[in-house]
Amino acid sequence: MADTFVPIAPRPAPIKTEGLVPWIKRNLFADWKTSLATIVFLALAVMYLPGIADWAIFHAVFRADLAACQAARETGACWGVVTEKYRLIIMGRYTYEEQWRSEIATALLLALLVISCIRRFWKPWLAPLWVAVLVVFFILMRGGVFGLTVVPTDLWGGLPLTITLAVLGVVLAFPIAVVVALGRRSHMPAIRSLCVVYVELVRGVPLISVLFMASFLFPLFMPAGVSPDVFIRVLVGITLFSAAYLAETVRGGLQAVPKGQVEAAATLGLSYWQTQRKIVLPQALSIVVPAIVNNFIGIFKDTSLVSIVSLYELTGSMTLALNSDADWRPYKIEAYIFIAIIYFAFCFSMSRYSLWIEKQVGASKQR
Amino acid sequence: MSAPPRLPPKKRDWSWRSQAFRALIYQIVAVAVIGFAVWYLAHNTLLNMAARGIQSGFDFLKEPAGFDISESLIPYDALDPFWKAFLVGILNTLRVAIVGIVLATILGSLLGVGRFSRNAIVRGLCYTYVELFRNVPVLLQLLVWYLLFTDILPPISDPLSVGSLFFLSKGGFSFPVPVWTMGQTLATLGAIAGLVIALIYRYVTMRRFELTGRPGSLYLVPGLIILGGILVGWIAGGAPTEWSVPKPGDFQTEGGASITPEFSGVLLGLVLYTSAFIAEVVRAGISSVARGQSEAAGSLGLSRGLTMRMVILPQALRVIIPPLTSQYLNLTKNSSLAVAIGFPDVVSIANTSLSQTGRAVECIAIIMLVYLTTSLSTAAFMNWYNRRSALKER
């Protein structure tokens, strides 16, 4: 009697773990607690989001129309204040006919900043390029040569001033920071303690006290008759402030370079400065690029403080634009949201870059 | 024929080829340059001050300040001397910093832990919060909150209220407080006594657990002991039940206790901003704990909550504490931005004094001294705590 072939029953298909539905099941309705949270949050969204959307978009006034804004006072946002004042908010008090100069100069600075962020361009010629662009930047902004009319620094303002202060504050602080970081790891006790005292002193006080110092004490420090304008004073203050923070960042990078590198350099007969320049700093700095970007974000946000010592960067020029016009003053909250979005766009994209470059730098270390 | 080997220079050689000698010269030059710079600046300052007829010295601290301060923890009026005005400012700074640190730690930890939630909405909300609040300058946030408190809220005479007990208006937030009598004093003493007993009880339970492995109650019984202490003190003081309830008036809210819009604005801004950073610190700390640890805890049968509390957090704390310290210091330093919205902190008082007396050097020196002292002492305390929670290897 021949055996008849009887197939065994098929196994059930494996549970589907890819795709939208399993993701929702796993992340939103895993057990009764997560399901409850999901339902509560969805209910809150249904309750409040339409109201917010109504205020911000559907009932909002986008034209610079004061009467319409007043009519929509309780129900909708008045983005008209931005339409009306955006130029004053973004460009500050810079002479109106000359604002193209401020725009070009800032665009140039930003372009160089973006180039400096790409690893392919981390070459020795970047430093002289920075010097050249800064010279062009100041000629464009200040004028006085090539037939450009002079725009004194106390008229500089808005977003260009924010970017200028942040970029210059970090770029000028960088050489100081490297020297101080090396000094803090030096074997010479006097130099080491000078660097420690500088770093700890500056990091222990708020930026605003440094700005007060730049604003009130700096004129006293100078010899009689010499009084640099407020922009230079504030720039010196911000530079010295960010140098202390950058120095700590750079020191972290120096510590991460293995001791064998320095010893190998000594075996080759390199001097101290040759070792630092050719062996230690290139490795240390490439490690700390993400941290330096984070420092830059911090300084970028901190520039908003200079409005307290009467320099009108983005926050200051916005306050100035609204306080000088009683008609539009009631719509401050919309203007606040507008510049908050500008700050957010800059800081968020830079922090994304910081994460990305961290992976890039880390990738070269992996074998 | 080989030349005799050249000996390296001796360590104490008076020659440029000696490293020790070079180091000495470098240091002398560095100190001389810095010393000269400091002397030059000081010299200029003295000359300038003499030329402009600015007086110097800290003797002005004894003179009457002549300005009012809108809120103060200690009694103060315009006739009081400058040093008292500065003291008011320092107390206000400390008040906002301490309350802010506590609240920011709680909110930040919740947000940081929330990044690991199994619910995608919670994760997304925590992520959005962190990115939103840490990428906008804290000064702008303070201005927004202050604007909300002063512009959007209803006037003092017509406040928002919850059950006629809590009132929220342009004048700030008012809430009822018990009238302070003997009962409250005794209850406070009872709470302190209860706390001491509870701590001793907790220590003993902990020791017994470590020795025998028998678990005891670490939260419920100590909590009951403290509650009992309060109750005993309160009853011993005659069980007072009188409350001072705020009553809204036309110009100010009478009775109860209140928080000014300035204080609320500064506090809210600082807490929301700093908690975004603390959340990132906590997240980094938790994700630094190896995955095997939570898997091992799971295989021992610990629940998710217990795994977090007993296994993950103790290990994460070691990574968390150093950056957390710098966030605390940042919060304290950022409290100086209160000057922008008129909260009378030490910077604001110094600013007013500066414009009244013209003694810029002294006033700025006071600001720096206050912040340096708080920064260094906070750092010292957190270093001590860090050593305590550091890895104890057997």
Short description:
The complex is a heterodimer of chains A (367) and B (394). With 367 residues, chain A is mainly alpha-helical.
Task: Please render the helix and strand layout as text.
The complex is a heterodimer of chains A (367) and B (394).
Chain A: H1 20-27, H2 32-58, H3 66-71, H4 80-91, H5 99-116, H6 126-142, H7 158-184, H8 189-204, H9 207-221, H10 230-256, H11 259-267, H12 272-302, E1 312-313, H13 314-323, H14 332-365
Chain B: H1 19-52, H2 82-114, H3 120-134, H4 138-152, E1 160-162, E2 166-169, E3 172-175, E4 177-178, H5 182-212, H6 220-236, E5 243-244, E6 247-248, E7 253-254, E8 257-259, H7 261-288, H8 291-299, H9 304-334, H10 346-357, H11 360-389
Antiparallel strand pairs in B: 1-2, 2-3, 3-8, 4-5, 6-7
Helix pairs in contact in B: 2-7, 2-10, 3-7, 4-7, 5-6, 7-9, 8-9, 9-11, 10-11
Word description of this protein:
The complex is a heterodimer of chains A (367) and B (394). By secondary structure, chain A is an all-alpha fold. Chain A has a domain at 160-316: MetI-like fold (Orthogonal Bundle), CATH 1.10.3720.10. Helices cover 70% and strands 1% of the residues of chain A. In chain A, helix 5 (99-116) runs antiparallel to helix 6 (126-142), helix 5 (99-116) runs parallel beside helix 7 and helix 8 crosses helix 10. The longest helix of chain A has 34 residues, at 332-365. Chain A is flat. The termini of chain A are far apart. The relative contact order of chain A is 0.09. Chain B is mostly helical and 394 residues long. Chain B has a domain at 82-148 and 260-389: MetI-like (MetI-like fold, Orthogonal Bundle). Chain B contains eleven helices and eight strands. Chain B has helices at 19-52, 82-114, 120-134, 138-152, 182-212, 220-236, 261-288, 291-299, 304-334, 346-357, 360-389, and strands at residues 160-162, 166-169, 172-175, 177-178, 243-244, 247-248, 253-254, 257-259. In chain B, the strands form three sheets. Chain B has a four-stranded antiparallel sheet. A two-stranded antiparallel sheet of chain B has the order 4-5. A two-stranded antiparallel sheet of chain B has the order 6-7.
